[in-house]
Amino acid sequence: MEVKSLDQVLLKLPAVRETFNGCRSVFKATDKDGDGLIQLAEFKQSALNMQLHLPDQLLEDVYNQADLNNSHTIDFREFIVLLTLVWLLRPQSGGEQPLAGLDKAMDTVVAAFLWFDKDNSGSIEREEVLQALGAEDVASSRAPHHSGGRHGPGRSASKHRFQEMNLLKDGKVTFPEFVLCVESWAGVEDDE
Ligand SMILES: [Ca+2]
Ligand SMILES: [Ca+2]
Ligand SMILES: [Ca+2]
Q1: 70: number of Cβ within 10 Å
Q2: pLDDT tens-digit series, residues 80-132
Q3: Residues 6+ positions from 160 with CB-CB distance below 8 Å
Q4: Residue 192 domain-assigned (yes or no)
Q5: Is 191 domain-assigned?
Q6: What sections of 71-143 are H helices per DSSP?
Q7: Which pTM was predicted?
Q8: How far, in Å, is the centroid of ligand 1 from the Cα of 31?
Q9: Cα of 131 to ligand 3 centre, how many Å?
Q10: Which of 9, 25, 120, 154 is the most buried (most CB within 10 A)?
Q11: Residue 132: nearest ligand to its CA?
Q12: Ligand 1 center to residue 190 CA distance, Å?
């Protein structure tokens, strides 16, 4: 999928929400001790069960990247981030694909990230959000089927969206942070 406008992403959010919420059963199955959090050992065990064949060190890196609040445990929303990272690293050939049910939702998330990250730096900077949403304004005002005087998000709305995205307040949004943002936009909660 190639993203051409933010609207395209927004339209897909209900499907993304459904897919992500469908991961609660995977979360529960992974949470062997039932404390509502995924510990590193639980994640490693499920990686074994999924036959991901990823080195231990990589699993730990991915786990730490998904642990966005540095609590050393993974809650449900972080678990989706974890699944996204694992999905990116999944084996591409042979046999049954683990996490194949996530393909469409993950494609959307990745395509949306790439659309924002204009300079391919691997993170979304403030200017890129303004640029992406600014271009959106121009595109929607030029659109011939302009219906009912709908205006795209203005510059202040763009700023607001970035602040919402910029969880760690360090001026850029990394991919794991972006996944958490998409979850917020889609309305995915920690609890059912
Ligand atoms: Ca647990
Ligand atoms: Ca955490
Ligand atoms: Ca960038």
Answers
A1: 7
A2: 999 999 999 987 766 667 788 899 999 999 999 999 999 999 999 988 888 88
A3: none
A4: no
A5: no
A6: 76-89, 103-116, 126-142
A7: 0.85
A8: 4
A9: 11
A10: 9
A11: 3
A12: 14
Q: Which domain holds residue 133?
A: 6-186
Q: Ligand 2: distance of its center to the CA of 191 in Å?
A: 14
pLDDT 10s digits, 126-142: 888 888 877 666 565 65
* Length of the chain as a residue count: 192
Q: Which residues surround ligand 2, an ion (CB under 5 A)?
A: 67, 69, 71, 78
Token representation of residue 45: 């065990």
Ligand nearest to the CA of 27: 1
CA distance 56 to 53: 9
* pLDDT tens profile 30-65: 999 999 999 999 999 999 998 888 999 999 999 999
Residues 6 or more apart whose Cβ sits within 8 Å of residue 121: none
> Does residue 91 lie within any of the structural domains?
yes
Q: What is the CATH number of the domain that holds 142?
A: 1.10.238.10
What pairs with residue 174 in β-bridges? 123
